[in-house]
Design goal:
By secondary structure, the chain is an alpha/beta fold. It contains 27 helices and 12 strands. The strands form 3 sheets. The chain has a 6-stranded mixed beta sheet with strand order 8-9-10-5-11-12, with helices on both faces. Strands 4-3-6-7 form a 4-stranded antiparallel beta sheet, with helices on one face. A two-stranded antiparallel sheet has the order 1-2. Bound molecules: adenosine-5'-diphosphate (ADP) and magnesium ion.
Length: 614
């Protein structure tokens, strides 16, 4: 609520601004701040939330500007509002069309592709003379009007612009707090893990670009009507570069930051006019200083200074010693979990995951070679073997990240062949990663909520309309996440940002995120890596607990004592081929395995673990 109060106060303060007797020039600068603020809010959706670099936003801005300018100017000019809407829709559609092929790319490839798009648009504005009038540009663009009232002075335009900006900011702040905003930030922090947690990554990224482009189009339309004249040279890479600076200085991933960034970039030259000679130098140094000293931007800095600004349930922070206590509380915690604990797991003797003659080739290397594997429901199945023997590759194929080169994998009677990562997760097969892949800037609770799976009743529309159903959705997700966090012993740490937590806790958060989906099967890729013996002990406890609550487990692990203690069945790989399979007892005694992998000494030591178990 504080947030709305602040918006209202800010709006009020800004509304009286025109009566302060500011020279018209400054009101115009404020109007430009509004237009470019809107534009950087739009870039922030792609960059700050979804984590994708777009260097083509000047293009979307231009599409909006030209659409609105061409349709409203001249004698047959249409009314402002339909053209304003059309500018957004058209830019949004182009955004989706650009996003579909380019968002498969990452990092600098994506940057290059979008840079190319921006340049193509500029060339189009310049050379499609019949429509855009080329270098002459489009002039005589009428002022926007509503029912005869024209926003034809800077002061009048100010209200229109402010209204549009606040409406968009309200939607962004609702989105920011919604599960959709969370999913988008999950994609930004760890795309692969977001997919494996059931987030439709393609939809998220393309949707974000579409919405972002649409808002850029609206900003373009406002720009055209504010200036009454547009020409192609505005929509160049220089503009995009300025926009990037606005978002970074304002604070990527914050709701209001980009507007502050726009204000900073537009007003800084005014402040610096005192020195004509060194103006550029001071401007550049100022930007560098802001990036150095306010890495989270103005918005991030304000958020840290005034935490009340970002509304949310606040719980008392957890003290450092409590972190350890919380994780060590596993025994207690794990006894009081998940509703299905008291129900005996359904006896289901058949195989849940079946690999038939699966191979995977990387160039000349056969990482997995003609592998047949059956994981029975309700068991803990271990996949072991030396480094590079194809274990992670198999998990990557089973989770839909890699395609099989030949053969097939079935989960619960369905072939996974063409499934995308999030489809596999949707069908109840989830995984953790060998190298932790958490959403590192999100809290423990947010990480786990991304993994949780409920039918969202409110939907995105509900979020934007501020419906009750979408708040209910968040509550259900939160409850589900709570069960999973309790299971993994990380409930007390739920408000901590995960990157600040110790390694063991992070491993447990990954498990909690996977459990939150209420899966039928979990694949754990080296969950004990980096854990000390005590921590590994707690892990054993949890893996047994997973089986108890009816979740089938496939575990890849190098810690042999751990494997011997939890596994019902073990498959051994070497150079991608299965070299042995059987009970822990069989495997420990298999001379082939002892030679290829275990060695005699370890094999003798494992004897104790196997006999302790029986
Ligand atoms: P493990 O998990 O058993 O240690 P991996 O499945 O990660 O082994 O790797 C098996 C083999 O496949 C290794 O030789 C590895 O270098 C190779 N490999 C895995 N992923 C790729 C990839 N994306 N591109 C090329 N080679 C790969
Ligand atoms: Mg591996």
């Amino acid at each position: 609520m504080t947030r709305y109060l602040l918006i209202a106060l800010a709006a009020l303060a800004i509304c009286v601004l025109p009566w302060l007797g500011l020279p018209d020039y400054y009101v115009r600068l404020i109007n430009l701040t509004i237009v470019f603020g809107l534009l950087s809010v739009s870039l922030n959706i792609v960059m700050g939330y979804a984590g994708q670099i777009s260097l083509g936003h000047a293009g979307f801005f231009g599409i909006g500007a030209y659409t609105s300018a061409l349709l409203t100017s001249g004698s047959s000019g249409l009314a402002f509002w339909p053209c304003f809407g059309l500018a957004g829709v058209l830019a949004g559609l182009v955004g989706v069309c650009v996003g579909l092929p380019t968002l498969r790319l990452r990092g600098h490839y994506l940057a290059l592709a979008t840079l190319g798009f921006g340049e193509i648009m500029r060339q189009l504005f310049l050379n499609w003379r019949a429509v855009t009038h080329g270098m002459d540009g489009v002039g005589n663009i009428p002022a926007p009007s509503v029912g005869g009232f024209a926003f034809d002075t800077n002061e009048r335009f100010f209200y229109l612009g402010l209204g549009v900006l606040l409406a968009v900011l309200l939607q962004v702040s609702r989105f920011d707090k919604s599960i959709f905003g969370l999913k988008l930030r999950a994609i930004r922090d760890a795309e692969l893990a977001a997919g494996a947690s059931g987030v439709n990554v393609t939809l998220g990224k393309v949707g974000a670009l579409g919405v972002s482009a649409a808002i850029a189009g609206l900003a373009g339309s406002l720009y055209a009507h504010l200036l009454a004249y547009i020409s192609p040279d505005v929509f160049s890479f220089d503009l995009t570069a300025q926009l990037l600076a606005m978002v970074v200085i304002g604070g990527a991933g914050t709701v209001f930051g980009p507007v502050l960034g726009a204000a900073a970039i537009i007003f800084m030259p005014e402040v610096l006019r005192v020195s004509d000679v060194y103006y550029q130098l001071i401007f550049g140094a100022g930007i560098v200083a802001m990036i150095l000293f306010l890495p989270m931007g103005l918005g991030g800095w304000l958020r840290d200074r005034f935490p009340g600004l970002s509304a949310g349930r606040s719980r008392p922070p957890v003290a450092e010693p409590a972190i350890v206590a919380s994780v060590q509380g596993i025994e207690r915690a794990s006894l009081s979990i998940v509703p299905s604990v008291d129900e005996p797991p359904k006896p289901c003797p058949g195989p849940l995951l079946v690999a038939r003659s699966v191979s995977r080739q990387f160039g000349g290397l056969k990482a997995v070679d003609d592998l047949n594997l059956e994981v029975r429901a309700g068991t803990v199945h271990a996949l072991i073997g030396p480094n590079g023997s194809g274990k992670s590759t198999f998990i990557n194929m089973a989770s839909g990240i890699y395609r099989v080169s030949s053969g097939s994998i079935e989960f619960d009677g369905r072939t996974i062949a063409q499934d995308r990562v999030w489809d596999v997760a949707d069908h109840g097969l989830v995984r953790t990663f060998q190298n932790l892949r958490l959403f590192s800037s999100l809290t423990v609770e947010q990480n786990v909520m991304v993994g949780a799976n409920v039918d969202l009743r409110g939907g995105l529309g509900g979020v934007l309309l501020g419906g009750k159903a979408s708040q209910a959705d968040v509550d259900v997700l939160r409850d589900q996440a709570e069960l999973a966090m309790r299971f993994a012993g990380v409930l007390d740490l739920r408000d901590r940002v995960v990157k600040t937590l110790p390694h063991e806790v992070q491993r447990m958060v990954e498990i909690a995120r996977a459990v939150a989906r209420r899966p039928r099967m979990i694949m754990l890729d080296e969950p004990a890596a980096g854990l000390n013996p005590n921590e590994a002990e707690r892990l054993v406890e949890r893996i047994r607990r997973l089986r108890q609550i009816g979740i089938t487990v496939l575990i890849v692990e190098h810690n042999m004592p751990l494997v011997m203690r939890v596994a019902d069945r073990i498959t051994v790989l070497n150079f991608g081929r299965k070299i042995a399979e059987g009970s822990p007892q069989d495997i420990r005694n298999d001379p082939f395995v002892v030679e290829a992998y275990l060695g005699k000494k370890l094999s003798r030591r494992l004897e104790q673990h196997v006999s302790a178990r029986n």
